[in-house]
Write a structure and sequence with these properties.
Number of strands: 25
Radius of gyration: 23 Å
Family: Belongs to the homogentisate dioxygenase family.
GO molecular function: homogentisate 1,2-dioxygenase activity; metal ion binding
Number of helices: 2
CATH architecture of the largest domain: Sandwich
Number of domains: 2
Helix content: under 10%
CATH superfamily of the largest domain: Jelly Rolls
Mean pLDDT: 94
GO biological process, one term: L-phenylalanine catabolic process
CATH class of the largest domain: Mainly Beta
Shape: globular
Low-confidence stretches: 1-16
InterPro entries: HgmA_C, HgmA_N, Homogentis_dOase, RmlC-like_jellyroll, RmlC_Cupin_sf
Pfam families: HgmA_C, HgmA_N
Distance between the termini: 59 Å
Largest sheet: 10 strands, antiparallel
Bound molecules: fe (ii) ion
Length: 453
């Protein structure tokens, strides 16, 4: 258990929630943290009266009766209970943020697709208005599946807060820096890092350096967890200590504010007179987290062939079928290639899972051209894909010395469910019409001659 008592009352600072924040290491820990000394009850959760006149409140991330090794909840000690951060709801529209099931009738999702980076708009956009859904999968009403989004953010949310009852959000920045001011503390996020904001947690997003662009995986299902390493053992891949959860930080600010709630794919707004980010102390294991992707320790082939790309899984969200993820988050980063007598890039394949990829920076080895930073590609359920002609010829004829794949960081959101394009992805986003042609020039080499290579 971590104990953190750094004073962190930033209500008098010029910037709400201030700049004096810190993080506690670990993933799935039972953390405890207080921004004011003595705010956290000891030895019990619900004393008759809490210190400082705070209200005690539990945030349950799993069913009360979930097995203890999966059970997640956090006790919050706050200035007002959450019922005061909610009033009558009014439906609003965010037309570019779509939720499964969402299958536009005049869009063809069957195909291999690739997009250039979506350009920044001239318009001012916040975390809410700048979210652009590319694909959806599964069904939010049964809490399975996901959506992939691109965010384009120029402006901070001011006196405006948000939570998603539908999903946890896995955020993968590609450009710019953002600050997530959450009920449980502050996360600053830059490219090469990721963050997870749990379902139900209230937050606002500020722009530290803009414009900001990145990718989001909205997970409707069970939470992301670390994959079992199997025979790899206790170390490597993503290590628990490299995940960071913020210490408690609160604001005691009385100003007209709005809270937007995403619930079953619809957006609702409620008006309150103060900031809902008023948790002075908390303890528990249901909390936001960030992770530096450069601490991911890849494991791979050291003699010949290469394993399935699942070897590069950072986080996995189970679907209920063992070994079959609702979502895997997979990272393709710098690494050494040493395999002998081996075609080293990813092989040609078809997959029952559907694969959405994004490029954070650099050049991806199976697609030296066309898949560029900020860009995305989609290889949907049971659709063939693999190296383009240049990558195939290069890797087939390369001298197989030890080679460092450098300056490369791409990722995949891989789901067991087919992904459906939104109208935005099919009609407005910069889709590369000629992507399918990258395999066009692969020629037949076979002529029946034994030994021909
Ligand atoms: Fe693939």
């Amino acid at each position: 258990m971590n104990r953190q008592t750094t004073p962190n009352d930033m209500t008098t600072a010029a910037t709400p929630m201030g700049t004096h924040h810190g993080y506690m290491p670990g993933f799935g820990n039972d953390f405890e943290t207080e921004a004011l000394d003595g705010a956290l009850p000891q030895g019990m959760n619900s004393p008759q009266k809490c210190n400082y006149g705070l209200y005690g409140e539990q945030l349950s991330g799993t069913a009360f009766t979930a097995p203890s090794h999966q059970n997640e909840r956090t006790w919050c000690y706050r200035i007002r209970p959450s019922v005061k951060h909610s009033h009558r709801y009014e439906k609003i529209t965010l037309p570019y943020w779509k939720t499964a099931p969402h299958i536009p009738q005049d869009v063809t999702s069957l195909g291999q697709y690739r997009w250039d980076p979506i350009p920044h708009s001239e318009q001012k956009m916040t975390w809410l208005t700048g979210m652009r859904t590319m694909t959806t999968a599964g069904d939010v009403n049964t809490q399975i599946g996901m959506a992939s989004h691109i965010y384009l953010v120029t402006d901070s949310m001011v006196d405006s807060y948000f939570y998603s009852a539908d999903s946890e959000m896995l955020i993968v920045p590609q450009e710019g820096r953002l600050r997530f001011c959450t009920e449980l503390g502050v996360i600053n996020l830059a490219p090469q890092e990721i963050a997870i904001i749990p379902r139900g947690l209230v937050y606002r997003v500020e722009v530290l350096e803009g414009p900001a662009r990145g990718f989001v995986c909205e997970n409707y299902g069970q939470k992301f967890e670390l994959p079992a390493r199997g025979p790899i053992g206790a170390n490597c891949m993503a290590n628990r200590r490299d995940f960071k959860t913020p210490v408690a930080a609160f604001e005691d600010r009385e100003t007209p504010s709005t809270v937007t709630i995403k619930w079953c794919g619809q957006f609702h707004e409620t008006r309150i007179g103060h900031s809902p980010l008023d948790v002075v102390a908390w303890h528990g294991n249901y909390c936001p987290v960030k992770y530096d992707l450069t601490t991911y320790c890849p494991v791979g082939a050291v003699l010949f062939d290469h394993p399935d790309p699942s070897i590069f899984t950072v986080l996995t969200a189970p679907s209920g079928v063992e070994g079959t993820a609702n979502i895997d988050f997979v990272l393709f980063r710098e690494r050494w290639m040493v395999a002998e007598n081996t075609f080293r890039p990813p092989w040609y394949h078809k997959n029952v899972m559907s694969e959405l990829m994004g490029n954070i920076y650099g050049q991806y080895d199976a697609k030296p051209k066309g898949f560029i930073p900020g860009g995305m590609s989609l290889h949907n359920m049971m659709l063939p894909h693999g190296p383009d002609k240049n990558a195939f010829e290069g890797a087939s004829n390369a001298e197989l010395t030890a080679q460092k794949l450098d300056n490369t960081m791409s990722f995949m959101f891989e789901t067991r469910f087919p992904q459906h394009l939104t109208e935005f992805a099919a009609k407005e986003a910069p889709l590369q019409d000629d992507y399918i042609d990258c395999w066009q020039s692969l020629e037949k080499k076979f002529d029946g001659t034994p030994g021909k290579k």
